[in-house]
């Protein structure tokens, strides 16, 4: 038997209408990959029983004993009239809905707490604790509705789970994983990734991917995701050495622009070298400090931040010279240098990052356009460096890209120092 062709399906009209975001699919695909199963595609469907039925029939129709199909579907297991999963699967498997005793007992206990009239309310919710008669139950340790595992035809297996992420995650790990591993053999897949800073998806494909034979002939697959200030590039193959070769070739091409997961590596580097860091931020309003302090244990290396949004604070608190501000302006290399140097002294840190720029939409001039930013990196015992960038993004994206990029610039300097 070959490894299954996997499709991850999310149902719900709130998803197709754009009112909610599907986070389940990517989580499931990532977990399946860790088990050795590669997801072929994602599918998002509205609460339309005919459409759900037709798609399941089509996906199951290509299955055989030697070439199985695994469909993992979330949503549609609630008590309301627009929850169609149970109805559709019963029809496809020529079965009837039966109460699951364990889930029914939990539902009764819940409704009994509501007091008077609970029995009438309970009756309308029974579909939530029912499963197709010829399916295997997937118990719900977090919520009420059980999931189920059904064989739609020979070689075609469907796992149905609640759409609530916390319930789905617990059910997947506790109930579904053992079933999948028992039913299917998995292929050995290897994967690795890196970040490339200041790079776009299209340019990376044009400059690098199109010239790699292993990615053309299918020996390896690649993926790229645009993030705030960088792209995340992933390579995947059954050949571990090929994955590492692709990673190495990428590093050779892009050199210092490449990092691993910076948000893991930077804190680790600071801790290993016992260095302290502070930020002096203007246009980012403390976002760089937020990224740093989002990580538990950051107090070990991050001492504090000054949001010097106005010239008054730059001058009176940070200590930027009035003459510097008048001669060069708040958004300048000179101001960024003084912010970094004085900020390190003020905060008592080994390292300091300074950020001053024009986030927009107003504030630009013919010589300093909206999107201009200066990022300073102060390292004790080293000359402070300032990088000028022009990032013509909308205000929110500009601030996020600048904050993340400032951490990269400091990290990149530090890792070059022995």
CATH topology of the largest domain: Molybdenum Cofactor Biosythetic Enzyme, Chain A
CATH architecture identity of the largest domain: 3-Layer(aba) Sandwich
Determine the CATH superfamily of the largest domain: MoaB/Mog-like domain
- State the end-to-end distance: 52 Å
Q: Using the coordinates above, name the CATH class of the largest domain.
A: Alpha Beta
Protein name: CinA-like protein
Family: Belongs to the CinA family.
InterPro entries: CinA, CinA-like_C, CinA_C, Competence-induced_CinA, MoaB/Mog-like_dom_sf, MoaB/Mog_dom
Domain MoaB/Mog: 7-183
Describe the structure.
- The radius of gyration is 27 Å and the shape is elongated.
- Strands 2-1-3-8-7-6 form a 6-stranded mixed beta sheet, with helices on both faces. A 5-stranded mixed beta sheet has the order 14-13-15-16-17, sandwiched between helices.
- The two termini are 52 Å apart.
- It is of the alpha/beta class and 418 residues long.
- The chain has 16 helices and 17 strands.
- The chain folds into 3 domains: 179 residues, 3-Layer(aba) Sandwich (Molybdenum Cofactor Biosythetic Enzyme, Chain A); 70 residues; 155 residues, Maf protein (Alpha-Beta Complex), CATH 3.90.950.
């Amino acid at each position: 038997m070959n490894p299954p062709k996997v499709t991850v399906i999310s149902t719900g009209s709130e998803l197709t209408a754009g009112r909610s975001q599907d986070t389940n699919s990517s989580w499931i695909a990532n977990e399946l990959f860790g088990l050795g199963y590669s997801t072929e595609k994602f599918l998002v469907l509205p609460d339309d029983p005919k459409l759900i039925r037709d798609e399941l029939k089509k996906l199951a129709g290509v299955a055989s004993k030697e070439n199985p199909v695994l469909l993992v579907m979330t949503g549609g297991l609630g008590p309301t009239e627009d929850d169609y999963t149970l109805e559709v699967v019963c029809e496809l498997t020529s079965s009837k809905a039966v109460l699951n005793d364990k889930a029914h007992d939990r539902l009764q206990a819940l409704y009994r707490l509501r007091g008077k009239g609970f029995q009438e309310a309970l009756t309308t919710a029974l579909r939530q604790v029912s499963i197709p008669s010829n399916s295997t139950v997937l118990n719900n340790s977090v919520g009420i509705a059980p999931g189920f595992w059904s064989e739609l035809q020979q070689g075609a297996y469907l796992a149905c789970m609640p759409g609530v992420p916390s319930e789905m995650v617990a059910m997947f790990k506790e109930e579904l994983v053992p079933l999948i591993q028992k039913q299917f053999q998995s292929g050995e897949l290897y994967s690795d990734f890196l970040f490339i800073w200041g790079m776009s998806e299209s340019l990376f494909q044009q400059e690098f991917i199109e010239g790699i034979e292993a990615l053309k002939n299918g020996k390896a697959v690649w993926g790229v995701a645009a993030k705030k200030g960088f792209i995340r590039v992933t390579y995947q193959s059954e050949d571990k050495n090929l994955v590492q070769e692709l990673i190495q070739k990428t590093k050779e091409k892009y050199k210092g622009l490449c990092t691993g997961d910076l948000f893991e590596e930077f804190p680790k580097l600071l801790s290993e070298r016992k260095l302290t860091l502070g930020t002096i931020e203007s246009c980012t309003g403390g976002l760089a400090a937020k990224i740093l302090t989002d990580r538990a244990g950051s107090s070990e290396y991050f001492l504090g931040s000054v949001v010097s949004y106005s010239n008054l604070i730059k001058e009176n608190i940070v200590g930027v010279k009035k003459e510097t501000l008048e001669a060069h302006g708040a958004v300048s290399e000179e101001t960024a240098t003084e912010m970094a140097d004085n900020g390190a002294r003020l905060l008592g840190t080994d390292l300091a990052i300074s950020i001053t720029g024009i986030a927009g939409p107003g504030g630009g001039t013919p010589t300093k356009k909206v999107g201009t930013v200066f990022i300073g990196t102060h390292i004790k015992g080293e000359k402070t460096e300032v990088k000028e960038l022009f990032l013509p993004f909308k205000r929110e994206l500009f601030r996020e890209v600048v904050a993340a990029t400032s951490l990269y610039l400091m990290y990149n300097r530090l890792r070059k120092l022995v």
